[in-house]
């Protein structure tokens, strides 16, 4: 249960998933949603679980708090084996695990304050105390001025903030987020992710984020597990997996992006222009600023490249992310471009049209 960090310093796993499988029995057949899942999530981590549609993400997140009981295996929360708990103990355990969803799940007939008070009064907290706590939580999510508003009067981002405040009301140790930003535009997504980061740092809550977007994982997660057809394809530190994706699923999610808007408008036009299909992927992992690198490369080598995919962000003046470049036709020009990029500290790998 404990990992040694140094001689006197131990990092505890707050969630352990052991050999977990989940099968659903249908009238005529059985569906295997998850097979042999093993995960260790450290206390204080922001852990991403990413996969394509149907991979098993939602089933896995529901198994983490036994809303869905696994067919085999176990989940251990702070040393307590969920499979061994009575129904009552399980209900108590669940109050320490908050959950938010893509669809917010707010009570539309109640105002914001009452939505947050509801789980508190249900658990017996006097109304006055519940309201005081709900008002505090509204400050945490920066919605003090919306206490009397109804969910229908709020934007998607504001509704998700209310859902977060409600999830925090029972002082959880863990917050599970199931596609919590999938319905939001990029700017609102970012503000919700920053709020989750703040909650993680200030309140010390461990956060598990289920998503199909690598950009979400990159923005906030320290560790990630990639799930493919119900199995863990790859797991580890986000930066390591992003820089060197090995499994088919990781390469699909990272290199092809599955985020079609990330591809530049000129993909088809560019493919005609370059007459060569040779493409490389470069990864910016922190010590280079991408615009000067690419423009300096063109100036120095005299060879142009086509930017087929640019999924880069400026983090405090430092480039993070990736680009896929279409190389010039001539082999000597290709070699010059590749060696320039490598000399300037970028990781370079060849990519094919279809990730295998
Ligand atoms: N209650 C259920 N009964 C039968 N099959 C189910 C049930 N829940 C999920 N499944 C199946 O399990 C597999 C995994 O589904 P799940 O919803 O966990 O995937 P997901 O990665 O969350 O997908 P999405 O991103 O599309 O929501 C799918 O094949 C799905 O059809």
Automatic annotation (TrEMBL):
GO terms in the biological process aspect are: amino acid transport
**Swiss-Prot/TrEMBL keywords:** Amino-acid transport, ATP-binding, Cell membrane, Membrane, Nucleotide-binding, Translocase, Transport
Point out the signal peptide segment: none
Q: Could you state one GO cellular component term attached to this entry?
A: plasma membrane
| CDD domains linked to this entry | ABC_MetN_methionine_transporter
Tell me the protein's name: ABC transporter, ATP-binding protein
All copies of the ABC transporter domain together span 15-254
Gene3D superfamilies from the xrefs?
3.30.70.260, P-loop containing nucleotide triphosphate hydrolases (3.40.50.300)
Q: Which domain of life is it from?
A: Bacteria
PANTHER family, A to Z: AMINO ACID IMPORT ATP-BINDING PROTEIN (PTHR43166), METHIONINE IMPORT ATP-BINDING PROTEIN METN (PTHR43166:SF30)
MF terms in GO: ATP binding; ATP hydrolysis activity
Q: Does the keyword Magnesium apply?
A: no
The family annotation for this protein states: Belongs to the ABC transporter superfamily.
